[in-house]
Gibberellin 20 oxidase (Calycina marina), 341 residues
Amino acid sequence: MRHSTRSTQYADRTIPKISLHDFENRIDEITAQLVAAAETDGFFGLTDHGISLPEIENMFKNSQSFFELPDEVKAKVPFTSMNAGWEKNSQIRPSTGQPDRKESYQMQFGAHMDGLWLPEEILEEFKEISLDFMHKAHQVSEKLMICFARGLGFEDDYFVRAHDVSRPEAQSVLRLLHYFEVDKSVPVPEGYYRAGAHVDWDFITLLFQRAGQSGLEICPGREAATEFGIGDVWTKVEPQPGEIVCNIGDMLMSWSDDRFKSTFHRVKTPSDPVLDYYGPRYSMAFFNQPCTDAEIQGPLKKYPMVTGKGFTDRAMNRNFAALKAKRGLEGVKSEVTSVSS
Ligand SMILES: O=C(O)CCC(=O)C(=O)O
Ligand SMILES: [Fe+2]
């Protein structure tokens, strides 16, 4: 069934829920469910994944303690071309041509984070809690990687080896996000977006949200990783406590010869005081990125082989083509703030 709010068309659908309970014994059943979800909407909710609600909440508190710091302090760990660090109001989406109204802080496992952790005196235990959480998110991701490798006919550990976070070439990222509270009493200004429509270009994203802080919407229907068009029928994905919302990124779409779908999504800018959430919104996205030297090519070899680094560079170029065309190449590079999405 379809209905619309203002100019947006909505479909009443839900994304599949997949439980990782008793993973070793149920791996065939779980693989079938994951592959079916990946082949259709490219989004699914994960339960019984092994990260408890208190662990997730603890990481959200850790995230909040970072964002509560004054901007001058956060600016000591600025976003770098290594895809790590803090940015505010500076990620411009090609779909909107406007910066997302949010701040984010991206953390990695290895050398890309050198100089980008705040000292203990400023944020006690922040690094330890974050790395511990990142390792947990990586462990969940490894289970998904084994199933997707099986589904595509690769060796079980094929994707796991490509995403080895103990190597210096590792590129996986935990991104903490904070969208600012929006004033309900005045109309939202033209050109204000929480997170404009986009696809992720990682392998697979694990998104942690807080109950009640809604806004995520998805728009399935993309047929090829090389095509960048957006449909116009959206589906709301309400945050459920403890659930991880997962989505296939462009990397896995292309690595599966377009069998698995990387789907457009956004965080809606509140516009309806009755239906929408106007408060501050915190979320955390764990982007699995293969190591820079990983070789990416699907079983059918639909696309030429590309390395992890090559894929990222190409996705950056394509993702920001609209912006480059609008403003000209010069001066844009410094504003490109993420290679994750
Ligand atoms: O904050 C969210 O819920 C979504 C974030 C997202 O899609 C991204 O950062 O790529
Ligand atoms: Fe995203």
